[in-house]
Structures are given as structure tokens and as C-alpha cells.
Design a protein that fits this description.
Rossmann fold; alpha/beta; antibiotic resistance; 3-stranded antiparallel sheet; 6-stranded mixed sheet; 243 residues; single chain
Length: 243
């Protein structure tokens, strides 16, 4: 098997507890190079904890992760060059402008995307001189995505990609993810938006109570549940509704 055939992301038997509360229990995932995996579940299902362990931002109590064959906690410097991460909360310097933040992040990588390309990808070209603190919540979200893509990562984690975005910005972000697929970038997409899953995802990891209930294509989930659509399949398999 050559590198192009090997999974881009491998997570095996990941578990994480906080005190007596189970956040993630025995979750295993493999994501092929160039695939988009949707990580789906209600709030508290373990989605963010799972991707934070994959990114090396949180240590699992048990299990292990490899991203392009690297351990994200022990090979931090190498992983930072190939993994882009956008999480729900952006902790960026509020007084810096969009252009200054993009320039700062581009400086971390040997061959970054151009500032113009990054701002165009997320529709912020006209906000380049705006300070971060003056951006709307949706614009801050889009800037975080641009920063995650600055170093031309081969794997990207996007946590609630389109939360807080208006319909036009949402479609633009979907187009950005589709461009990443065309570039053979592997994407882990944490989401609760079924339309997003149906449009973008090759497979879906359905989490509930920290456990992996299913790992299927969107159509496979619908067939497995004997449902008419993905919304119905989610309710059937998890016994819950996405809010």
C-alpha cells in the first residue's frame, strides 16, 4: 500500500472522561485521503471532544490517533504543518485587522496560500482592514476558517462550519469545502446541518452519548434506518432530534 492508499486519519478506541462523566467511549474512525467525513450528533454527543483528540488538543484517556501517520501529541511540530483546525471558539487578538491576522498565520508556514486567495475563499476581501473585534460573529467564523487553511493543510478539521452564517455565506463555505475536496484535502466536518451532510459528506460518523452508533455513507444511514431521509434516519438511530 502506498501513501495515497493509506487512511489520512486513523483513530482507534478513543475514550475520554471528565470525572465520572463519559465524553467519548471507544470511538474508532478511519478517514480516506480526500474524503469528507461528517461528524454528526446532538449537543453533548462527543463530537468536539473526538475531533479535539484527533487534533492533539486534548489527550485521550485511552486509544490512539494518527494523522498522516503522525501522532498529533508527540509529533506536534510536524502535525501543525499538515493539519488545519477551525474550532467553534476563536481566540484571536481583537485589535489586529483581518489582513494582519492572515499575515501572521501565513508566517507560520513555508508555502502558505496567498492572502488574497484566503480572503477570497471565505468572502472577506472587503474586510481586510477591519479589526477582529469589529467583525460579526459569522465573519469571525469565516476568518477562523481562512486561518485554518493558510498553510495548505492536507487534513482539515472544521467544527460547526456554517453556524451563524447567512444563507449566502453558508453556500460560499460549502463551495470552499468542495474546492478542498478537489484538491484531495481530507476534511472532518463537525455539523448538525443535514443539508450540509447530504451535499458535502462522503461518510457520516453518528455519535450519541460519546459512542459511535454508525459509520456510513449518508445514503447508507438512510437505508440502515429504513427511513425516508437523513433527518428521519438520525431520529431512528439515535432516538433524538437535532435542534
Amino acid at each position: 500500500m502506498d501513501d495515497t492508499d493509506a487512511p489520512a486519519v486513523v483513530a482507534e478506541n478513543l475514550s475520554k472522561r471528565y470525572g465520572g462523566a463519559v465524553a467519548v467511549e471507544d470511538v474508532s474512525l478511519r478517514v480516506a485521503t480526500g474524503d469528507i467525513l461528517g461528524v454528526l450528533g446532538v449537543n453533548g454527543a462527543g463530537k468536539t471532544t473526538t475531533v479535539e483528540m484527533i487534533a492533539g488538543l486534548r489527550a485521550p484517556d485511552s486509544g490512539h490517533v494518527r494523522v498522516l501517520g503522525l501522532d498529533p501529541r508527540h509529533d506536534r511540530a510536524k502535525v501543525r504543518q499538515v493539519l488545519g483546525v477551525q474550532l467553534q471558539q476563536a481566540y484571536l487578538h481583537h485589535a489586529l485587522t483581518v489582513a494582519e491576522l492572515v499575515g501572521l498565520y501565513r508566517g507560520f508556514y513555508p508555502d502558505p496560500r496567498s492572502a488574497e486567495e484566503l480572503l477570497d475563499l471565505v468572502g472577506l476581501t472587503d474586510r481586510r482592514t477591519t479589526r477582529f473585534e469589529r467583525l460579526s460573529g459569522g465573519q469571525q467564523q469565516r476568518l477562523s476558517i481562512a486561518l485554518a487553511l493558510a498553510g495548505r493543510p492536507r487534513v482539515v478539521i472544521l467544527d460547526e462550519l456554517t453556524t451563524g452564517l447567512d444563507p449566502r455565506a453558508r453556500r460560499q463555505m460549502w463551495a470552499t469545502v468542495e474546492q478542498l475536496r478537489d484538491e484531495r484535502v481530507t476534511v472532518l466536518l463537525v455539523t448538525h446541518a443535514m443539508e450540509e451532510v447530504e451535499r458535502l459528506c462522503d461518510r457520516v460518523a453518528l455519535l450519541d452519548g460519546g459512542r459511535l452508533l454508525a459509520l456510513e455513507t449518508p445514503a447508507g444511514l438512510v437505508a440502515r434506518a429504513g427511513a425516508a431521509n437523513l433527518d428521519e434516519a438520525f431520529v431512528t438511530l439515535s432516538g433524538k432530534e437535532l435542534s
